[in-house]
């Protein structure tokens, strides 16, 4: 049975001359709930040296880099004492909080790549990004659904979508989010979701490879119902479980690293309104392990 | 184009007498503007483009294409329509130097939303349609955006045909370009005459002729008007041109954008300056002058020569006696200095400037770099002055400042706000040659404006010494520079990042970003246009790669993304040579014409056929896959409806095109 995180940190604090990578390893191996925040990656040059890179590759690189930096600079006192056994890893050099008077000039957009069918994760992810950026409201949240086949062996139906969408609606109700939308829904799914939603989606994302060949029925439906069709170039599976485990394996000699599963990935973008200038971009990823942390199956 | 005051223009002698007065008050007007507006901030992105068109009459029976001199009539009709329009007109029209030219711009600027990039082409199409609707196509009238009309200055090139000899052409004294081809607004003839009189002789432009199989060697023309000056001035193996019309009668494509404050304007001015030669080469569209194939593909040096008002003393041909300075460049040419402190170390050419003016500006609180920039522009005399506009209120008016500012025609222009206006600090990008179709023109415009967003988002740095930018400007104009040219370009354009950067390349990157010119480790190297735009294997990733990274991060609607993708592809393929530049296409057309005799001569018939085909391509009647493939955009006249609604809610005050 692994020692709870807080105990580890107390123990470590009393040890002298412990290599920092060892501290990192101990902390990682003592937790079951891990959140990684890359901070603002907008000036991470090695990402831009490649001629093209999709979100999957970007997430992989950023997470690895964040973990590496953390492992070599970790200070146990950074741990989040309040959260029960949850470890939040951030890159303090890259953190950029948004000040009060800056906020009105900025547009914060978020895309949640849900990897488990759990509506609570939507709220959790939005809360996390608000906390990290020190903001109260997110301007838009787009929801990408988990790949269905791995979980269910069924076809996507609006019944899968609605519970997740209800979380989005609740966020909208409490004014945590100003606009909510979907990702990669075809006309059929979009129409059904739109029909049954209380708060209608105002955005649906479409993969950029089809931006010049959008099916006319989708275009027509979007136009009639005031839905913006925006492009994205994200892969279907932005963080496959083996990839996540591989990233962790690099920073931990824990035998149980293959128990980890990614639960959600969030990408945020901060733009200066009306000037088209990107101010910040980052990823937050949450993963967990042990059966007790697995979500309830969708009924 | 420039200041269009109404009233009575002064003679050159009188203008010269007022030169110091104009400079003195111009500087005071600048100081007043600066003091009042230097802290202006928070301006949103607003931008616009300017497209110039030539009016042409095609005579199918006689196989001639002539430039139609009824530009002013057409402009009057366009302006009337604008005035009578019940709502804000989507297009605006302005006169240009030649009476066969008209300039069109959007009625209101575009804004800072991605959707605006999808409106440029539609607005350009609207302009072209409006213009064409006033022309009589039955009579062969049309409008084409040639950068240079192939038979400009050839016998009988105008409609109506006009006698052309120096005794009749009192403004230009040109052997080839009649005064009636100059816009009848007094400013333009005044400029023409004053430039010539100040210089003390006609302007003298000599452009190398293209040596084809049968081109005479040496290439020497005899001038039927038997002009002694011409015989002396014309260089062997060159095409000789002798007036302002040959330069300012060329068309171009310009973009202006508003920065959020003065520092951002200075920053963008500096960052775009090294890109001027790149875009000149990429947009090359001017390989034929006065009916001859030239050995250059661009208009730049021709225009530089066409308004070169420097006296022999200023050109260093005689010792300084009456004039104050030896000046290396014409008042139309590439910029001579950067504006930001970060770029100061790259200002490596001697800047000729008026020390008193420089000191006066600094005493007024303007920093040294900016003071030097304006003190350099103000070495020039005003070359046009109206009697009604001599004594001005320096607090309220800026005509004297604009007089000097607008007759320094440079590759970039840094534009202070006008007094008493909501307009902010702006930057103008001026080197691009105009293309035949709206798709192509939109592509170049969108590429540059989008690039400014990428420069600001990623803090890119393209700075290289000014002397190298000047070398690039000459390289860019050479025949086929887009495929064969080698251009100085910065090796490391990304800023150094302290943390999480790849540790292997970090030391090298940081070093090259920060260091001054060392002997063995230069910050810049030679690249081809293809490498600059599309990237090098294992080296610079290319401009398009950086732009795609930006496009993947921001919210873009599907139609805008489709259009922008097509625009980027056009530029990429022009850069790789897969698609022809307009210059290459024109050359190929001439050289493949059945009547072409391999002697570099573009006859009336060849020019007619070229014009006809260009007209059909422009109108979309004829495809031209060599020029722009089968690329097609999803351009729209307005923003997507949802965005439109939100915009009205969120930003009701922004006076932009929606």
Automatic annotation (TrEMBL), chain B:
Metabolic or biological pathway: Sulfur metabolism; glutathione biosynthesis; glutathione from L-cysteine and L-glutamate: step 1/2
GO molecular function: ATP binding; glutamate-cysteine ligase activity
One GO cellular component, as annotated: glutamate-cysteine ligase complex
A single GO BP: glutathione biosynthetic process
Reactions accelerated catalytically: L-cysteine + L-glutamate + ATP = gamma-L-glutamyl-L-cysteine + ADP + phosphate + H(+)
Keyword Nucleotide-binding listed: yes
Enzyme Commission designation: 6.3.2.2
Signal peptide: none
Stored InterPro entries: GCS, Gln_synth/guanido_kin_cat_dom
Any single Pfam family the record assigns to this protein: GCS
UniProt keyword annotations, A-Z: ATP-binding, Glutathione biosynthesis, Ligase, Nucleotide-binding
Entry-linked Gene3D superfamilies: 1.10.8.960, 3.30.590.50
Self-association state and partner proteins as the record states: Heterodimer of a catalytic heavy chain and a regulatory light chain.
Homology family: Belongs to the glutamate--cysteine ligase type 3 family.
PANTHER family in the record: GLUTAMATE CYSTEINE LIGASE, GLUTAMATE--CYSTEINE LIGASE CATALYTIC SUBUNIT
Function: Catalyzes the ATP-dependent ligation of L-glutamate and L-cysteine and participates in the first and rate-limiting step in glutathione biosynthesis.
Protein name (Swiss-Prot/TrEMBL): Glutamate--cysteine ligase
Organism: Branchiostoma lanceolatum
């Amino acid at each position: 049975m692994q020692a709870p995180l807080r105990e580890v940190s107390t123990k470590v604090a009393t040890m002298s001359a412990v290599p920092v990578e060892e501290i990192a390893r101990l902390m990682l191996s003592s937790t079951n709930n891990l959140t990684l925040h890359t901070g603002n990656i907008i000036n991470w040059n090695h990402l831009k040296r490649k001629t093209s890179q999709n979100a999957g590759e970007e997430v992989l690189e950023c997470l690895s880099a964040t973990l590496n930096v953390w492992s070599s600079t970790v200070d146990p006192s950074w741990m989040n004492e309040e959260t029960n056994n949850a470890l939040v890893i951030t890159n303090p050099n890259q953190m950029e909080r948004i000040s009060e008077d800056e906020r009105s000039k900025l547009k914060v957009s978020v895309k949640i790549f849900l990897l488990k069918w759990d509506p609570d994760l939507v709220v959790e992810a939005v809360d996390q990004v608000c906390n990290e950026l020190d903001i109260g409201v997110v301007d838009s949240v787009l929801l990408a659904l988990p790949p269905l086949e791995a979980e269910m062996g069924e076809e996507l139906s609006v019944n899968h979508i609605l519970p997740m969408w209800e979380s989005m609606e609740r966020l909208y109700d409490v004014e945590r989010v100003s606009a909510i939308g979907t990702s990669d829904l075809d006309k059929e799914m979009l129409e059904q979701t739109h029909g049954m939603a209380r708060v209608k989606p105002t955005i649906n994302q479409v993969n950029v490879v089809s931006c010049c060949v959008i099916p006319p029925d989708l275009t027509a439906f979007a136009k009639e119902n005031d839905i913006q069709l925006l492009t994205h170039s994200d892969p279907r599976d932005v963080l496959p479980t083996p990839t996540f485990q591989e990233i962790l394996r690099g920073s931990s000699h824990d035998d149980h690293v293959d128990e980890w599963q990614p639960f959600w990935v969030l990408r945020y973008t901060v733009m200066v309104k009306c000037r088209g200038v990107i101010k910040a971009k980052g990823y937050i990823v949450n993963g967990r392990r042990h059966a007790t942390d697995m979500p309830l199956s969708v009924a | 184009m420039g200041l269009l005051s109404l009233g009575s223009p002064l003679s050159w002698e009188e203008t010269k007498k007022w030169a110091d007065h104009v400079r003195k008050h111009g500087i005071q007007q600048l100081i007043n503007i600066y003091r009042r507006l230097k802290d202006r901030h928070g301006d949103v992105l607003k931008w616009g483009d300017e497209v110039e068109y030539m009016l042409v009459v095609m005579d199918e029976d006689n196989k001639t294409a002539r430039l139609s001199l009824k530009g002013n009539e057409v402009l009057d009709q366009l302006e009337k329509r604008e005035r009578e329009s019940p709502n804000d007109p989507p297009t605006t029209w302005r006169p240009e130097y030649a009476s066969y030219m008209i300039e069109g711009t959007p009625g209101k600027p575009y804004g800072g939303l991605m959707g605006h990039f999808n409106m440029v082409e539609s607005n350009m199409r609207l302009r072209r349609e409006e213009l064409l609707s006033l022309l009589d196509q039955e009579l062969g009238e049309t409008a084409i955006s040639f950068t240079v009309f192939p038979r400009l200055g050839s016998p009988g090139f105008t409609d109506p045909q006009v006698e052309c000899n120096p005794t009749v052409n009192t403004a230009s004294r040109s052997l080839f370009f009649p005064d009636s081809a100059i816009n009848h607004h007094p400013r333009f003839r005044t400029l023409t005459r004053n430039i010539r009189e100040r210089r003390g002789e006609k302007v003298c432009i000599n452009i190398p002729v293209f040596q084809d199989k049968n081109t005479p060697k040496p290439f020497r023309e005899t001038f039927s008007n038997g002009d002694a000056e011409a015989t002396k001035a014309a260089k062997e193996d060159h095409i000789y041109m002798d007036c302002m019309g040959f330069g300012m009668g060329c068309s171009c494509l310009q973009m202006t954008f508003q920065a959020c404050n003065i520092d951002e304007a200075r920053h963008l001015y500096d960052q775009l300056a090294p890109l001027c030669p790149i875009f000149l080469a990429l947009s090359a569209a001017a390989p034929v002058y006065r009916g001859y194939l030239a050995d250059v593909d661009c208009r730049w040096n021709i225009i530089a020569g066409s308004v070169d008002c420097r006296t022999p003393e200023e050109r260093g041909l005689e010792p300084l006696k009456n004039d104050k300075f030896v000046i290396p460049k014409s008042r139309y040419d590439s910029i001579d200095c950067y504006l930001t402190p970060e770029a100061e170390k790259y200002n490596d050419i001697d800047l000729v400037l008026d020390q008193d003016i420089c000191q006066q500006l600094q005493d007024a609180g303007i920093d040294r770099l900016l003071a030097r920039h304006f003190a350099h522009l103000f070495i020039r005399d005003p070359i046009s002055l109206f009697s009604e506009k001599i004594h001005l209120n320096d607090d309220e008016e800026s005509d004297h400042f604009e007089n000097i500012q607008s007759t320094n025609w440079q590759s970039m222009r840094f534009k202070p706000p006008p007094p008493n206006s909501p307009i902010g600090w702006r930057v103008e990008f001026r080197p691009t040659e105009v293309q035949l179709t709206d798709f192509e023109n939109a592509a170049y415009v969108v590429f540059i404006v989008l690039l400014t967003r990428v420069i600001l988002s990623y803090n890119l740095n393209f700075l290289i010494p000014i002397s190298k930018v000047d070398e690039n400007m000459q390289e860019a104009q050479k025949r086929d520079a887009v495929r064969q040219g080698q251009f100085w370009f910065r090796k490391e354009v990304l800023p150094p990042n302290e943390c999480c950067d790849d540790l292997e390349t970090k030391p090298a990157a940081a070093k090259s970003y920060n260091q001054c010119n060392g002997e063995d480790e230069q910050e810049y190297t030679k690249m081809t246009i293809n490498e600059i735009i599309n990237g090098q294997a294992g080296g610079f990733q290319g401009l398009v790669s950086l732009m795609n990274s930006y496009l993947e991060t921001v919210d873009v609607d599907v139609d805008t993304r489709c259009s922008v993708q097509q625009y980027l592809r056009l530029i990429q393929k022009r850069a790789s040579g897969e698609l022809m530049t307009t210059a290459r296409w024109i050359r190929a057309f001439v050289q493949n014409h059945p009547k072409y005799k391999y002697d570099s001569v573009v006859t009336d018939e060849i020019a007619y056929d070229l014009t006809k085909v260009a007209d059909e391509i422009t109108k979309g009647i004829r495809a031209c896959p060599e020029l722009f493939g089968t690329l097609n955009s999803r351009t729209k006249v307005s923003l997507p409806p949802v965005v439109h609604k939100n915009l009205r809610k969120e930003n009701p005050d922004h006076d932009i095109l929606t």
